[in-house]
Design goal:
Layout lengths: L5 H10 L3 E8 L8 E9 H6 L15 H17 L2 E8 L1 H7 L1 H17 L8 E6 L11 E4 L2 H4 L1 H24 L5 H4 L5 H10 L16
Parallel strand pairs: 1-4, 4-5
Antiparallel strand pairs: 1-2, 2-3
Length: about 220
């Protein structure tokens, strides 16, 4: 807080935020694959001119794969127009095993925000909305955590979509290297078929050992 002058803060109150940023994570519960955090940055002024652009939004969990892909195309069109930016950061299973899931998610949030920072004016000009119990780094002074935020706020729902699409693509790519596990179907989650594959073939370097205690030694 001390690094910002009172005059700048007062000016922000007068002009408002330039960017709305949404943050959400996916891949908290799978037995395999990374955790992913999506960050969306929307130019507030530009979004206001796009009447109805986000109408009918849903969080990624309530969309079919086809529905998520359709939104992803729409998101990339807005990105090409220059008024939306996004980043997705992954943290590996090995980090989850060593440092824990909470640490991994915090790391991914920081990484994704740094990528977004490259194309905007910095934390002071942003309002950050986060889903669930997530928090942004302390330099983002204007942040709010919203329970079920991916159902209530467009910018959080968009973040959940880009994170889900990106993580799913990574798991599909992983399935080509390890076809016996069916990653392209369950995306690393603990389905019956996945557990059976682990019992038969063991684990890969992409499995979370800390999630499989009692299943494998």
């Amino acid at each position: 807080m001390a690094s910002f002058s009172f005059d700048i803060l007062l000016g922000m109150k007068k002009v408002g935020y330039k960017y709305n940023i949404g943050i959400d994570e996916v891949g908290r519960g799978p037995l395999a694959g990374p955790v992913a955090v999506g960050v969306i940055s929307l130019n507030v002024k530009s979004l206001k001119s796009k009447v109805g652009w986000g109408k009918g939004f849903k969080d990624s969990k309530k969309l079919s794969a086809k529905g998520r892909e359709a939104w992803f195309v729409k998101i990339n069109e807005a990105r090409a127009e220059g008024w939306l930016e996004y980043a997705v950061a992954f943290v590996s299973p090995s980090v989850i095993d060593k440092k824990g899931l909470s640490h991994a998610i915090r790391t991914a949030i920081t990484k994704a925000l740094k990528d977004i920072d490259k194309i905007k004016d910095g934390p002071l000009f942003c309002k950050v909305l986060l889903d669930g119990g997530l928090r942004a780094p302390a330099e983002y002074l204007y942040q709010e955590t919203i329970i079920k935020g991916d159902e209530k706020e467009l910018v959080i729902a968009l973040a959940s979509i880009v994170a889900k699409v990106a993580r799913d693509k990574r798991m599909v790519a992983l399935a080509k290297k390890f076809p016996q596990y069916g990653f392209e179907k369950h995306k690393g989650y603990g389905t019956h078929a996945h557990y059976e594959a682990i019992k038969k073939h063991g684990i890969t370097p992409h499995h979370r050992k800390s999630f499989l205690k009692g299943v494998v030694e």
